[in-house]
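Second attempt. The first submission of Putative ABC transport system permease protein had a stray character pasted in from the spreadsheet, which I only caught after the job came back as garbage. Lesson logged: always re-copy from the clean sequence file. Corrected sequence (847 aa) follows.
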Amino acid sequence: MSLARDLRLAARFAARELRGGLSGFRILLACLALGVAAIAGVGSIRAAIETGLSEEGAALLGGDAEVSFTYRFASEEERGWMELNAASVSEIADFRSMATVPLPDGTVDRALTQVKAVDDAYPLVGKVELSPAMPLDQAFDCDPARPCVVAERLLTDRLGLSPGDMLRLGSKEFILAAVLEREPDSATGGFGLGPRLIVRRADLSGSGLLEPGTLFDSKYRLILPEGAVLDTVKAQALQRFSDSGLRWRDARNGAPGVARFVDRLGAFLVLVGLSGLAVGGVGVSAAVRAYLARKTSVIATLRTLGGTRRLIFLTYFLQIGALALAGIALGLLLGGLVPLALAPVIADQLPVPARFGLYPGALAEAALYGLLTALIFTLWPLARTEDIRAATLFRDALSAGRALPRLPYLAVIVALLVLLVALAAVFSDTWALTLWTSGGILGALILLALAGTGLRALARRAQPLARGRAPLRWALAAIGGPRSEALPVVLSLGLGLAVLAAVGQIDGNLRGAITAELPDRAPSYFFVDIQKDQIDGFLDRVETDPAVSRVDHAPMLRGVITRINDRPAREVAGDHWVLRGDRGVTYSGPLPETTTVTEGTWWGEDYDGPPQISFAAEEALEMGLRIGDEMTINILGRDITGTITSFREVDFSTAGMGFITAMNPSALSGAPHSFIATVYAEEQAEAAILRDVGQAYSNVTAIRVRDAIDQVATLLAGIASATSWGAAATLLTGFLVLIGAALSGERDRVYEAAILKTMGASRARILHSLALRSALLGAGAGAVALTAGIAGGWAVCTFVMETDYSIIWGNAFAIVLGGLLANLLAGLAFAWRPLAARPARVLRAAD
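This time the job returned cleanly.
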């Protein structure tokens, strides 16, 4: 029989089968729809944000392009080039400072603030919104002796300020003119430790805040002439000032940090969504298997009438394929429309613009994932229809046939699985994370399958131990029997719980490392912008305080690594994080007591030769650096080329001082710079230290480490919330699979209850048996999920997050209890029909 004829006949048979309705396939539809909807929704939101960032790039950036420098302003040549190539230029200085307010008792209140010093051209794009409403230039139009500023409400509330009140920045007094409600280019500011304050740069004269060596960034926003090509202008700038430390950004990626964060979080959530699809795939497989088990007599009859294996396979493949496509279409509909419906709510929660709509790319990606998942999980049970022969009419051939399908089917399933993983890696652009996640899901599925099989064998062996306890023996017999629900229950519920357990362990360990362990090891304060003539007095104050246990200080400069061995640095080390911006650079004569050299030699205390470099050992290994390599670092617009003579340990996990690069003193001491210090003190002494240092050195900025930790913890809470919702969707899918397993086994439980009633069992004892069965299966799934979740959390924390790991037992036990309760509720929800069954009617129908 030709393939075309088989297809036509199979399509006719499939259409007739589908006329019977969706009985047995509702769970299949729900599992696929939920998994596809989750991935499509995440993809649609990510696409909306990316579109918003792209369309609003100029507004987010504050211009068509931005040129920035570290710890210096543009030179006359650089500023001249900007004026020549741009229609408008606006200069901004961005730095941290302390805002102080006098109190009635003679003391002062202080708060860290992120200062933006602007010129009269700011903003080139967008509008600053103030309360009370007024233009920014009007807000700045104050008495020159006491100029005005605007500040975010968080800062004004913290210091108890209202418009018209006085505050001090550095050594100069200012008046708060208005509250800053909206800053058009706020998304480009990155991670800030303090609320925003905007001041005119000219008004900072005499404040001591922008002295040589002060830590600040200068940014020049450019509006380009009409018709200017961004790539051409960028190439000219980078070529002409390639060695000056100039950094370029343009409106095509106005907020790269935000875009990168959204992209990575979205990719991670898609991988969590794939976990949900894997759970849904288990449900699909179980639904197909249960449906085909009910069709054993139909298939055997077709074989009796001459139906070939190919015809029967195509019949049910087309039927189930049509239903799978319907589930995928439903998921795409939900994943595309739900973000649209919730667009106002989601947009209010986002710090960046988003353009919500239907994005074909995101929907196509979700559809592809759903289609491959459906194929992988339906081919396995479909392939086993070949085991049904005419001689097995009215027998359950699917439970008696081979465990694995034939080799050709296995090869196709493996190829589809490899394709799914490869596509996930390509779409997420995170190969390592995708492979780890896929390996974890596959490992968890194998572990859970083995656990389900082992649970059946254990139940069979344990039956003799339950003599005298009939409900327990009945439960063990059901779990160990040929129609046991152990495998689908353990697979579906276990994988969902495993994902949730892993997320809980990762979140708990990160929170513990940041909010619990880190404060014990971290300094109380970072003090920055300590000038050379202030460092001795500063040290005298903090080192003589009995409440201070430790003080570290070092010269502080910032530099951009531009070349390695006279080649562009990125050609040598790729896109390593050390090369993505400027990094801290220090100098020291003698080897500091807290420094451990792992390779090479440190220069002597009196060394006065060519520049030598000591580099962080771990980062050097990642970048492929070796002793003897030459490195060029641009510091304040000047290139300094030195030889790497040593590698040393740098521990960033303690939140203390850690410099990627250190050099000998003669290489850097002549450059304008300030000092940075960390102070470890008892918590009750922190306020007095801050007060004394602030009164003596008004330009010095203090960063309280606990405040920074709180901000990081808040950010982590948001990430954990997003991943927890993804894991919850996976768990919901698992619960749907549980319902499917309960539905598919309901006929067997009705027959079992009828037999038990005939033998004199009461409804209470039957209910007791059903509850024990569900509880044992749930506890087994929860225990395996606990093991997989703890292992997954350990792997991510150790190899991805590179942080210490300890088991969060409270979360772990909650997972086990949740698995037990979930399966118990699902089992009891479908116990009423077996309990209500009339033995005579059931047994007569079975005959």
